[in-house]
């Protein structure tokens, strides 16, 4: 990573604004430069009420639309907004060459959302699947003074730049996962997090590299609890 690279410390600077408001329910394409970004505001959302937000990150080779997929079906029922941002490359920056362009794009997207939606600062999560889960853990721990929760579905590893705050963490992993085998991934990551003092809810399931609907629902119930 080049010295002085923007976003190189992995830190996000956007913060919720209680005075924000105005986004209509439904899917919104955000005007970001160079990457796709989508905001889903749940049906029945009262514009003046603080709204939980989940930043949801796609796996390798995916895009913002893929980022919405694991939790989109539950957003209306549970009453939370979803923000999905596409990686600048095939996968997230820290997995390839250290923090940088993706941190910058996510920060820009969050600033845009915080200016349009009164996000509840006590219910602000980062979530992801596969490489997106690894990035969610890494970004969530680095920015635990922003994110209150981290949802990581089948992560491979974590690479936080620093520890800030104490976000609660949900991790799930399939015991038959051949893409990111559980023994070398979540079964190593979870004990490391616990040793570091994090509160971790861990769910193993009989399955492959996926997010089963019942696991997604469990994660949302945990976030909502």
UniProtKB/TrEMBL annotation:
GO molecular function: hydrolase activity
Classification via InterPro entries: AB_hydrolase_fold (IPR029058), Plant_Biomass_Hydrol_Est (IPR050955), PLipase/COase/thioEstase (IPR003140)
Residues annotated as domain Phospholipase/carboxylesterase/thioesterase: 113-213
Keywords: Hydrolase, Signal
Domain of life: Bacteria
Biased composition (Basic and acidic residues): 1-16
Disordered: annotated segments: 1-22
Name of protein: Phospholipase/carboxylesterase
């Amino acid at each position: 990573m080049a010295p002085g690279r923007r976003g190189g410390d992995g830190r996000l600077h956007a913060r919720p604004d209680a005075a924000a408001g105005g986004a209509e329910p439904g899917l919104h394409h955000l005007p970001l430069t160079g990457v796709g970004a989508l905001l889903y505001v749940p049906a029945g959302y009262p514009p003046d009420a603080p709204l939980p937000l989940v930043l949801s990150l796609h796996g390798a080779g995916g895009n913002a639309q893929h980022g919405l997929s694991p939790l989109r079906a539950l957003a209306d029922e549970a009453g939370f907004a979803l923000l999905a941002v596409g990686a600048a490359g095939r996968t997230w920056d820290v997995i390839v060459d250290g923090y940088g362009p993706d941190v910058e794009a996510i920060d820009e997207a969050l600033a845009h959302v915080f200016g349009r939606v009164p996000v509840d600062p006590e219910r602000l999560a980062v979530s992801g699947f596969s490489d997106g889960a690894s990035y969610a853990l890494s970004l969530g721990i680095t920015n635990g003074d922003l994110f209150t929760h981290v949802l990581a579905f089948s992560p491979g590893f974590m690479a936080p730049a620093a520890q800030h705050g104490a976000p609660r963490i949900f991790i799930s992993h399939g015991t038959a996962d051949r893409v990111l085998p559980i023994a070398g991934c979540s079964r190593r990551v979870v004990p490391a997090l616990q040793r570091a003092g994090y509160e971790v809810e861990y769910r193993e399931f009989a399955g492959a590299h996926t997010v089963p609907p019942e696991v997604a629902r469990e994660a949302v119930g945990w976030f909502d609890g």
